[in-house]
Structures are given as structure tokens and as C-alpha cells.
Specification:
Rossmann fold, NAD(P)-binding domain-containing protein, 2 domains, three-stranded antiparallel beta sheet, alpha/beta
């Protein structure tokens, strides 16, 4: 009991002061807390920590320690429920070598969430400057960032990284010449990942899918499906994920399917510029960096559990049959046009919590 009180006091000091350090455990692991308020549309406290031990640790031991420390950090949400952004453990990013996967890694680091960045080689080519700017340390692999090899096509590699204690998994992988076909990656690979998450009791699986994926008669579906039937296999993967979680019947586990519009390399516009929708009837354009932030925020938000939603820049929204040409020509949508094509399910907010609030979850 005395130990618990002392540890609670240490956590309180970490919240009240910009940085705080103490040593715990028989190995003398050092835990450093740093935080800062971020002006990103929500009052969010950034929490970073690192651990160092006297002796070498294997990967599973490192995951255990990161997970247990992250769970302790979860107490910060009790101390400051409106501002804490603490992960109960590390988050695995599958496909961290891809453009959207990299942005997911940078987003996790910016938010002080420990990240295991995976790729087929085990060494995703991240931008060192971007990692440092996001708070991941001066080197590519630092306090909050670790690397691991994982191939969604090979089930045995997944069980090495998707283990008990993981806070969540972001599936940012997709078909590529070297990585596998749409059937192998977006369908069969996603199914393997979902099964591994359920077996390891990982609280949340976030899937980065695609807008229009459930509307085979739409122009955007027909065009994109020309590339290896990718839309067909993406929606098959989505449907199988839902079925697996429904069959598992574990209320502690959940998924989130994010369906972004046309992806751009533009800087993130932030929560206030974005719009969520449900029903897969509208889409638009959106920066990969914004998609990544949505994936990370949704992973740790209860309101996004077991939901499927579309996301795009609010001023680019179009019905599916018009969005392709609009995206190519980089058109904007007027307020009047947006109102005329409203689905009634649009969601906009100035904070991430507000953006996810009210999303309709799937019914099992």
C-alpha cells in the first residue's frame, strides 16, 4: 500500500512538473516523464517516457516493461481526464515502411505513445528528422520507438509482434509489387492480423481501408478496382474482421475501420478541417498525416470502438460518383453544395473527442 501511494505521488509530480525522473524495480529501470500542452484543437497532454535497465533485454522483455509502465501511465487519465493522452502499452504499426504507415509512426511519437514500427525487412526507412521532430529521439530508434520484422502474409511473423500487453495494432499495409497481391495483403493478411489480435487480446485493431470500398457500382470503386481488384479484397477483409470480432464475443476487444478519401502528401490540416461520415456515400481528399492522426486518436478513443467511418477534408466532400474527377481537378466544395448533398451523418468538431463522439458502432 505504501509503495502504491509513493508511486501515485510520483505520477502526480509528473503531471505538475514539466519533467520528472525516478528509478523503479530491482533492475534500476529509469522512467522519465515529460509533458507539454499541445494546441491541436483539443487540450491534450503529451506524455513521453523511456526505460533503461542495467543489463540487456530481449524483445519480449522490453515489450513487457514498456507495457507495464504504460499501464501505470494510464493512471494519469484519472488525475487529469480531460488532458491525459496515455497509452496502456506500445502500439504496433504494420506497414510502417509505407507512406501512411510512416505517418502513423510519427503521429504516435508526437503523442508520446510507444511505437513498434514493423516492415517486412524489420528496418522501415523512416525519416530521421521527422522521428526526432516527433519526439522519438535523435536516432531512428529511440526511447519511444522500436523496430520489428513482420509480414502480414506470413502468420508466424505476426505472432512475434502481436503479443499480450500491446495496446493496439494499426493495419497500414496494402498490396504492392514486393509485399503481395491485394488478396494476400488486404484480405488474407488482414484476417491473419485480426485473428492474432483476438488471440493476444489486443484491445483495439485499427484498419486503414479506403472510401467507396463498399459501393461496387460507384465510379471510384470501379476505377480503383482495376488495380488488382483491391477494392473487392479490402471490403472482404473488412467484412471478415467484423465477423471475427462478433464471433469472439469479447467486449474488451474491438476494431475501427478508417476509410480515407484520396490521399495527398500535403501537411496535416488538423481536426477542425476534417469531416467524418458513415454509410460510404461521400468522400474527398485528405492528407496522409491527417489519416494517421485519425487512426492513432481513434485507437485510444472508446467512442470509435467497433465503428466504420469515412474521412476527408470537409471542403472537398463529394458524392462518390463525382469525387474522382473532383479530386483530380482539386476542386473545393462550397457550403451550399455540401448542404445539398448532406447525408445527415457528417461529423465535424474542434477536438478529436468531439469528432468521434456519436459515431454509430456496428451491431453484432
Amino acid at each position: 500500500m505504501a509503495c502504491t501511494k509513493v508511486f501515485g505521488l510520483m505520477l502526480l509530480l509528473a503531471v505538475l512538473h514539466e519533467s520528472f525522473c525516478f528509478t523503479v524495480g530491482p533492475t534500476g529501470a529509469t522512467v522519465n516523464f515529460k509533458h507539454s500542452l499541445k494546441n491541436d484543437g483539443a487540450s491534450t497532454r503529451k506524455i513521453g517516457y523511456q526505460m533503461a535497465a542495467d543489463g540487456p533485454m530481449d524483445r519480449r522483455e522490453a515489450l513487457r516493461r514498456v507495457g507495464s509502465t504504460g499501464a501505470s501511465l494510464g493512471l494519469l487519465s484519472i488525475l487529469s481526464p480531460q488532458s491525459a493522452f496515455a497509452s496502456p502499452g506500445p502500439v504496433v504499426v504494420l506497414g510502417a515502411g509505407g507512406k501512411t504507415g510512416k505517418e502513423c509512426v510519427y503521429s504516435l511519437l508526437r503523442n508520446g505513445v510507444p511505437c513498434i514500427a514493423t516492415s517486412r525487412s524489420g528496418a522501415p526507412q523512416l525519416d530521421a528528422a521527422a522521428v526526432a521532430a516527433a519526439g522519438g529521439g535523435k536516432k531512428k530508434e529511440g526511447a519511444l520507438l522500436s523496430f520489428a520484422a513482420a509480414n502480414v502474409v506470413q502468420e508466424t511473423t505476426l505472432t512475434e509482434v502481436i503479443t499480450p500487453g500491446i495496446a493496439g495494432v494499426i493495419f497500414a499495409a496494402s498490396a504492392s509489387k514486393k509485399g503481395g497481391t491485394a488478396k494476400e495483403v488486404d484480405y488474407e493478411g488482414l484476417v491473419k492480423v485480426a485473428k492474432a489480435c483476438i488471440a493476444a487480446e489486443v484491445p483495439r485493431l485499427v484498419v486503414v481501408s479506403s472510401g467507396g470500398v463498399s459501393k461496387p457500382d460507384s465510379a471510384v470503386y470501379k476505377f480503383l478496382n482495376l488495380f488488382g481488384e483491391i477494392m473487392k479484397y479490402k471490403v472482404m477483409g473488412e467484412d471478415e474482421v467484423k465477423a471475427l470480432y462478433a464471433a469472439a464475443g469479447n467486449p474488451a476487444l474491438g476494431y475501427t475501420v478508417v476509410r480515407p478519401g484520396g490521399l495527398t502528401e500535403e501537411p496535416a490540416k488538423g481536426v477542425a478541417a476534417l469531416e467524418l461520415n458513415q454509410g460510404d456515400t461521400k468522400s474527398g481528399r485528405i492528407a496522409r498525416a491527417d489519416v494517421a492522426e485519425i487512426a492513432v486518436r481513434a485507437l485510444l478513443d472508446p467512442a470509435a470502438k467497433n465503428t466504420v467511418f469515412e474521412c476527408y477534408d470537409a471542403d472537398t466532400s463529394k458524392p462518390l460518383n463525382a469525387v474522382g474527377a473532383s479530386n483530380i481537378m482539386k476542386k473545393k466544395t462550397s457550403t451550399e453544395e455540401a448542404a445539398a448533398t448532406s447525408t445527415g451523418l457528417e461529423r465535424r468538431a474542434d477536438s478529436w473527442g468531439g469528432l468521434f463522439k456519436g459515431l454509430k458502432p456496428d451491431k453484432f
